[in-house]
Amino acid sequence: MLLAAQWCRRWLLLAGVICISASGVSAQEVDWRTDYRKARLEAAEKGRPLLLDIGTEQCYWCKQLDQRTFRDPSIVTLLNDRFVPLRVNAQVSPDLAQALRVQSYPTIVFANADGKILGYQEGFVEAPRLKELLQKTVTLVSTPEWMAMDYDEANKAVTGNDYARAVSLLKNIVEDGKDRPVQSKARVLLQDLEQQAGTRYSRARLLAERNQTAEAIEALNEVIKYYPGTPAARDSLALLTQLNGKGDAADQSRARRAKEMLVQAREDYRMQQFSMCLDRCELLVSRFTNTPEAEEAAALLNDIKSNPEFLKTACNQLGDRLAIMTLALAESLLKKGQPQEAVFYFEKVIQNYPDTRHSETAQARLAQVRGLPTKATDFKK
């Protein structure tokens, strides 16, 4: 019996060695990549962040980092399951080290899937601190459930030619000021839709230049209807205003526009989008006076304004829209090189809309503006 037990243990040990050899990487080892281009492609494909361990062969603390920190089981698991880990020998790839602005060794660089640097850790770091940094990086680049769902819905809307819904969903995804992989894809899809709208607007403008007013008005209305919120839709509305009043064609277009707006207002009311419904109805009443559409719009206005619950919903929706606009204003100020003004509006969102995703977005961007999540100092705390 004893001999049989010893043989069994030896067999199990041999089987374990075979399993490790077959996989190529022990369960307690980091699966390091060594090709930067391939690692970038893998990170983009899997939607994972990159971790670059940059050092030299003669570097004492680089070896300590490898022998101690990168042997910690929790670090190994995090890197293999949630990252694309890349080891860079600065002596072999000096251009890459220089491009990453690495000045001392070892240096760990944290980057998202498209290569944008999220932060640095210079020098040796113990496993508990590195674990904090890894978890922070995963949080920065992870995709919220609502964002993934909205992106899927936007794709479905595009497939169903519901471009208005797609544009609205995609704008909601990209306007929180971060650079998650799903947001990069959303920006590409949104740009494609904006380009489609721009092509249609160009055709409508050409018709207007050829004095084909009726055809131009019809084409412009289609851009406004199918691509609301795009630059082309705004340009179309401006050109449509210029063309209005040119004979019977313009009158027919005006009547058609009033009917379309009323249909949209009814749909807003049905979907309990009372804030949008109020906007459309007030526009109908002011711009299409003495029309049946304006009369029905006035009735809808009265119905909403006389119902406290409807008004409460409208106020909440308006607050949501205002929060999005305030975040966009802050981002615009940042692009203009006015960070102090941007900070004011980020803080305003946090104060006015607590416990909302807009507040979370403002807090994250405020931390970035103040240098917390993207600077080396943050990763050293």
Written description of the protein model:
With 381 residues, this protein is an alpha+beta fold. 69% of the residues lie in helices and 6% in strands. The chain has 17 helices and 4 strands. It has a 4-stranded mixed beta sheet, with helices on both faces. The longest helix has 29 residues, at 181-209. It is elongated.
Number of strands: 4
Rounded Rg: 29 Å
Please report the number of helical segments. Answer: 17
Mean pLDDT: 82
The run of helices and strands is HHEHHEHEEHHHHHHHHHHHH
Ends distance: 58 Å
Q: Pairing-aware structural class of the strands and helices?
A: alpha+beta
Strand fraction band? 5-15%
Task: For this entry, give a set of tags.
381 residues, alpha+beta, 4-stranded mixed β-sheet, 17 helices, disordered C terminus
Short description:
This protein is α+β, with helices and mostly antiparallel strands and 381 residues long. It contains 17 helices and 4 strands. The protein is elongated, with a radius of gyration of 29 Å.
Protein topology:
Elements: H1 2-23, H2 36-46, E1 50-55, H3 60-67, H4 73-82, E2 84-89, H5 94-99, E3 107-111, E4 117-122, H6 127-141, H7 145-159, H8 163-174, H9 181-209, H10 213-226, H11 231-243, H12 247-270, H13 274-287, H14 292-305, H15 308-335, H16 339-352, H17 357-369
Parallel strand pairs: 1-2
Antiparallel strand pairs: 1-3, 3-4
